Every structure is written in structure tokens, then in C-alpha cells.
Description:
Layout: H1 6-13, E1 36-41, E2 46-53, E3 56-59, E4 70-75, E5 81-91, H2 97-101, E6 110-114, E7 125-126, E8 138-143, E9 159-166, E10 174-177, E11 198-203, E12 206-216, E13 229-233, H3 238-247
Parallel strand pairs: 7-12
Antiparallel strand pairs: 1-2, 1-4, 2-3, 3-6, 4-5, 5-6, 8-9, 8-11, 9-10, 10-13, 11-12, 12-13
Amino acid sequence: xxxxxxxxxxxxxxxxxxxxxxxxxxxxxxxxxxxxxxxxxxxxxxxxxxxxxxxxxxxxxxxxxxxxxxxxxxxxxxxxxxxxxxxxxxxxxxxxxxxxxxxxxxxxxxxxxxxxxxxxxxxxxxxxxxxxxxxxxxxxxxxxxxxxxxxxxxxxxxxxxxxxxxxxxxxxxxxxxxxxxxxxxxxxxxxxxxxxxxxxxxxxxxxxxxxxxxxxxxxxxxxxxxxxxxxxxxxxxxxxxxxxxxxxxxxx
Length: 252
């Protein structure tokens, strides 16, 4: 069992440049929370992901760019972090980093294959949002991001938040807000470390992953967290996910 290496430990203590955690929400031990894993990179970033098969993780493309090594973090009985190897990474070929940084729609999805199954995790159901998506539609996000922007030590715990769609949601992008604040003042939402977090919708089969968290803003669209949470829905990218999974020997 390998203790968390220095590069990965730093990732849990520093702020990632990619906005994305669920600020102030209560820790989750329910089904949704049991699907979430922490992803760390050798460049010092950390993100969220969701287990969709015992050794297959869904996350966002901007978190696992080429040129770095990635690991999954698990914790032993004493809450000491342990690293687990990622053996393969695939990024949707349609992803464009500049579009994501500008909060525009892009194929911000990626898959990681693990060397061994993620310990204590329950694979999540994978789907797409029910159409049409209406403003006010309810979704739940779950991630390991910071609860206080700029304080990396406040991250690393799986938290969930119930948010609602705002603006003109569709198959390219869904923007979520805390229904208690409507994005006009600080509320629940994604923050640093929540990039790649799953967005769930309650469907007939139960909670289903319908998208991944790509970005966030502060209140009124300003820099920071607690305003908008940008979700990339899987409607246009689920076929790529399933095809890649099949090529890797998974039947989702």
C-alpha cells in the first residue's frame, strides 16, 4: 500500500486553477457519495470523478490533460491517503480547452481506467438528462472540492448539493444555481476540486449521472465559487463514453 506521494499531497493542499467544489454542503455517505473519487495529478491539481464500473472512472477532459501522471486517492481506516494507479486515460476528441475556459460548450469528458477496483465504491448509473430540460429542473452534484475558496485544506471530503437549472438549459450546457440564492449571492455550488464531479438527476431507475461539472463562477457571474455551476451534459457524448468503454473491455 503506497502512502500519498508528495506531488499528490500537494494537490490536496493547493488550489487548482480549474474552478469547480460544493461549498459548505454536508458530507455525503449515501449512494451518490459512494460513487465519487478523488483524482490527483503530478502537476499539483486535484479533481473529482465518478465510478461507472469497478475500474472505470468518468471525469472531465480539462482535469487529465496529456503530460502528467494521474492517480486515484483512497483512504485507509485511519484516514491516511493511499494512491491507486490509473493505467489508461481517454479524452473525447472534440474537447477544446479555450472553449471550456470561456464557459462555452465543449466535449469536456474523459475516462480513466484503474489498475484495481476502487475500494468501497458503488458504480453509478450512466444516462443523459430527460428532455426537454426546463429552468428549475432539479439536479444533484457531488464532489471533493473546497468549501472555502483558496483553502485547499477544506477539500477532500465528498459533499453533495441540490441545485436547479437556470437560463436556457439544453444538450450543450446546463447552468445550475442554489435555489436559495439564485446565483445572486454566495450559495452552494461547485468550487476548486469539483471539476469532473458527477451531476445526477432522479430518473425512473433512480439517481443517474447525466453530466459532469466543468466550471463555476461566483455570485452574479463574477470570479470564484457559489454562483453558477456549469455542467456538460452527456447527451452528445454518451456514445463516445460507451464506445471507449467497450474498446477497453467494459460493458456498461
